[in-house]
Design brief:
Structural class: alpha+beta
Helix content: 25-40%
Radius of gyration: 15 Å
Largest sheet: 6 strands, mixed
Strand order of the largest sheet: 2-1-6-5-4-3
Number of helices: 4
Order of helices and strands: HHEEHEEEEH
Number of strands: 6
Number of domains: 1
Oligomer: single chain
Length: 136
Amino acid sequence: MPEAQSALEVAREFVLRINGGDPGAIASLMSEDHTFVDATGAAYSGRDQMRKGWEQYFAAFPDYRIEIQEDWAEGSRVALFGWASGTRSGGGGSFRVPAAWSALVHDGRVARWAVYCDVEPMFRAMGVNRFLTESS
């Protein structure tokens, strides 16, 4: 099997596990030194830390989903394009935004996962306005 196809299959499986909402299943597909880069550019490293991060994220957005409309791979690098959506737990707001993800896959595990999207709809769903000042 070509490496690009293998990396694409791993990334697709990673999305399925995210959509399944099970942090343990997601973590089992991460490399031990996995790095996650969020849409603000902040990076977090380590499989155990990221499993806990997914637990917290699903507590906030239990129905978080990724919808992939297009994907491609070249070697160990994968790009995915589509939509991210979720509803804030406890009756909060919801969001659905166009998004892109990049993955780096090594030895059948996701070593790096990065998301690119407008985070403001998610913050609004949480009732957060990052642009309010004390004078507002």
